[in-house]
Design goal:
Radius of gyration: 20 Å
Number of strands: 8
CATH superfamily: NADH:ubiquinone oxidoreductase Nqo5 subunit
Oligomer: single chain
CATH class: Alpha Beta
Shape: elongated
Number of helices: 2
CATH topology: Beta Polymerase, domain 2
Strand content: 25-35%
Order of helices and strands: EHEEEEHEEE
Length: 178
């Protein structure tokens, strides 16, 4: 017996996020939809010679952050995943998104987004415009670092390890042991 997939992936432009979420909240086909989760991840830089697993390879720019919104329809038991490429505060990411200073906050539409947006903003450095609650969750106030933002190469050419005989740190070229 075959079962249809209940997951739908939707790739949205940064400017259309608020309108898509408003449609998700107010329209009849998506009756009683809730925001379950929201997370962010960085797309690997093309310099690492890896292929991006996205429908359009020009969609994701080097060192860009993708924010994923997980919506669940209680009526039809469907899941809708919105993927949005967002600018990050500082860094080189914002240069790839001209005329886009931040993502729109959806906390007024979905109250669960308040905590999730604070977490993504604090840990990944993704700014949200229209966000009213800007308190930090984990970091000290005034700390503008984004601990989950990866600002170093994905593939290292050197390995660093401790040599207990010499009591020093030794750096060597990466070797693959089979």
């Amino acid at each position: 017996m075959s079962q249809k997939s209940l997951n739908t992936d939707i790739y949205i432009n940064n400017n259309a996020l608020f309108y898509a979420c408003t449609h998700m909240k107010m329209s009849t086909p998506f009756y009683n939809t809730q925001l379950c989760d929201m997370f962010a991840y960085e797309v690997v830089s093309p310099q690492s010679n890896t292929k991006l697993n996205l429908p359009n390879s020009s969609w994701a720019k080097p060192q860009s952050t993708i924010v994923a919104y997980n919506f669940h329809s209680l009526y039809s038991q469907d899941r809708f995943f919105f993927f949005v490429q967002t600018p990050t505060s500082g860094g080189s990411n914002s240069s790839y998104l001209p005329n886009h200073s931040s993502s729109d906050s959806i906390a007024e539409l979905f109250p669960a987004a308040n905590w999730l947006e604070r977490e993504v903003a604090e840990l990944h450095g993704v700014p949200f415009s229209g966000k009213k609650d800007l308190r930090n969750l984990l970091l000290q106030y005034g700390d503008t670092t984004a601990p989950f933002q990866k600002l170093f190469p994905s593939i290292g050419l050197k390995e660093l390890f401790y040599d207990p005989l010499k009591d020093t740190l030794v750096q060597k070229n990466v070797s693959v042991q089979v």
